[in-house]
Amino acid sequence: MRLLLAEDDQNLGELLSNFLQNKGYDVKLVRDGKMAFEEFNKSKYDFCVFDVMMPEMDGFTLAKEIREIDKKVPILFLTAKSMKEDKLQGFALGADDYLTKPFSMEELLARITAISRRTVGEEETEEEVYMVGKLKFEPAFRMLYLKEGERKLTTKENQLLHLLVKNKNEILDRQATLRAIWGDDNYFNGRSMDVYIAKIRKLLREDETVEIMNIHGKGFKLVTKD
What we know:
The chain is of the alpha/beta class. About 45% of the residues lie in helices and about 25% in strands.
């Protein structure tokens, strides 16, 4: 299991990372929320452990940004706060659990194991093979299979289509998508994304049951009529 750990306390971060690696996890340790968000969008992660109080971007904001592009990845918060309101805010943002410092390593491992068992049944069993209407899509290989033959997607085409498919029939937030793929939601990147959306629409056009809708002021939605 690949685990993304965001903890700004260097000693604690390294302690947690080493412990989890010894337990068989593939851990990526970052020092702030901005680095965590960038790392999440570069690689696929199966689990996230985020400190709440971090520089650049706090854990709550980080979780909100991630939930805009991935509704399912488990998120566990670590925090020195024990206020009921903070916990409610964390759960409202889509957290799976909340661990208050100080805690034991064994308790952290138990929470991760329990959440993983609970969510494994919700994970897609096709191992990154999606059906977009009648078209097969394999993001790991950047392949879209059309009637006329297979099509190798560009990196950004693949990233965009992957986000659209993972959030099928739900609104994909425009700004969050720009930050995830382009790293910045400025005007010029926005125009670039619109061009890529048009390219993907053209590729999917051969299946009339598939449509990418523009949701004014919000973003895009991939819908299928099957």
